[in-house]
Design brief:
Layout lengths: L2 H29 L19 E4 L6 E5 L2 E5 L8 E5 L1
Antiparallel strand pairs: 1-2, 2-3, 3-4
């Protein structure tokens, strides 16, 4: 008899978590800021091969191709790339 209130509370918590899981993505996409369309940056990697590497936390991304070495200091976002070597 003492377990019945505990089971009811657990079922309510599980139901709430399921609802948050089901409706969490649309709510988050409504509240999330829109992507900045004002910044357009095109990188072209032509040649024999391309290499991409990043730091352990992913903040610094390096891409190397036959045209040079590029670095992003903002998780590879458009507009954050600069050419390091030609």
């Amino acid at each position: 008899m003492k377990r019945e209130p505990f089971l009811k509370v657990m079922l309510v918590i599980i139901a709430g978590l399921l609802l948050l899981n089901l409706f969490g993505h649309p709510i988050a996409s409504v509240l999330a800021p829109k992507a900045g369309a004002g910044v357009v940056q095109r990188l072209s990697f032509r040649g024999n091969g391309v290499s991409v590497t990043c730091s352990t936390n992913g903040q610094y991304v390096y891409a190397a191709g036959s045209t040079g070495l590029f670095r992003s200091t903002d998780y590879g976002k458009p507009g954050s790339w600069e050419q390091v070597l030609e």
